[in-house]
Amino acid sequence: MKLDKNTGLVLEGGGMRGVFTSGVLDAFMKYECYFPYVVAVSAGACNSVSYMSRQPRRARYFNIDMLEKYDYISIKNLLMQGSIFVPNILYERLPNEIVPFDYQAYKENQATFEVVTTNCLTGRAEYLTEKDDVKRLNAIIKASSSLPYVAQITDVDGIPMLDGGITDSIPVQRAIETGHPVNVVVLTRNRGFRSSEPDVKVPKFLYKQYPRLRVALSHHVEVYNEQLEMIERMEDWGEVIVIRPQKPMEVDRLCRDTEKLERLYEEGYNEGELFCLSLQSK
Questions:
Q1: 129 close to 40: Cβ distance less than 8 angstroms
Q2: Whether the Cβ atoms of residue 1 and residue 182 lie closer than 8 Å to each other
Q3: CA-CA distance, 218 to 222, in Å (whole number)?
Q4: How many of the other CB atoms lie within 10 Å of CB of 35?
C-alpha cells in the first residue's frame, strides 16, 4: 500500500472506545504516517484533531489523565444541565488552556479533514470541514460528538446537529466518493461484532421538532450493523485495510476506568505500529 492522493483514513467513533484510535494515531505520528484525506466521526473526530495538528499523546492525555482529574463525564451533570459531558471543560478549557491545541499547525496542514455530523432537520449526515474559524471548528467537533439523549443539540451555521454516528458511523463510502478509493479504516470493535441492541421507534415527545431525526435514530442499529458487514466484505476482497481491536471490547462508550482505558490505548498503539512497520517493509 502506498500513501498518496488516492488514500484515505476513516475513523469510527465509539465514545471512550476511541482511546484505541488515539493509540493508533500516536503510532502513525511516530512513524510520520500521514494521509492526504481524513474523515472522522464523533470520538474519532475528537482524537484526530490532535493528529491533524501533529501533537502526539495529546489525545491520550486528554482522554485518560484528564478524565479522572476533571470528571468531565458525569451522570450528575446530565441531571443538572441536560448533558452527560461538561462542555465548558471539554470544548473550552481543555483545548485552550489545559492541553492547548496547536491551531496554527492544524491550519497549515494541507490534508483534507472532514467531520461527520447528523443534521437534525434532514436526518442525514453532513460532512463538514473548517481550517480558519476556530469557533466553528470547535462547534463541528462538539456536534459530531453530541450523543443523542445524553448530550445537547449543537448549532453549526444555524443548523441543529447531533452525533455523526447516528447516520454514518463508518464513512468509508464518503471517502470513496471524494476520490479516495484506497482506505485505511480504524474501528473500535473487534471483527465479527454486531450490535445486539434493538432498534426502537423513537416516541414523538423526544426530539418532537425533528421527525426526520427520529426516523434516523429508529434505524441506527440496523444501519450500523450493515456498515460493519460491508467493511468486512471489503476487507476480505482487499478493498480496505482495517485496524481494529483484536479482542471483544472491555471498554464501553462512557467508561471511566483509567486502567482499562490505558490498556486499550496501548493496544491501539501496537496495532498502529504494526501497520506502519508493514508499510516500511514493502
A1: no
A2: yes
A3: 9
A4: 21
Question: What's the grid cell of residue 182?
Answer: 484506497
7-11 and 159-163: which strand pairing?
unpaired
Start-to-end CA distance of the chain, whole Å, equals 8
| Numbers of helices and strands, H then E, in the chain | 12, 8
Q: How many CB atoms lie within 10 A of CB 248?
A: 9
DSSP string, 54-116: T-TTHHHIIIIIHHHHH--B-HHHHHHHS-SB-HHIIIIIIIIIIS---HHHHHH--SEEEEE
Asked if 243 and 21 touch (Cβ cutoff 8 Å), the reply is: no
85 vs 80: CA distance, rounded Å: 11
Grid cell for residue 226: 450493515
Q: From CA 111, how far away is CA 232, in angstroms rounded? A: 27
The answer to whether residues 19 and 261 touch, using CB atoms and an 8 Å cutoff, is yes
| Rounded-to-integer distance, Cα 53 and Cα 277, Å | 23
What pLDDT digit, counting tens, does each position of 145-182 carry?
999 998 899 999 999 999 999 999 999 999 999 999 99
Looking at the DSSP assignment, which residues form a beta bridge with residue 241? 184
Summarize pLDDT for 43-97 with one digit per residue, the tens: 999 999 999 999 999 999 988 988 877 777 766 666 666 677 777 777 788 888 8
Query: pTM for this one?
Result: 0.95
| 30 in Cβ contact with 62 (< 8 Å) | no
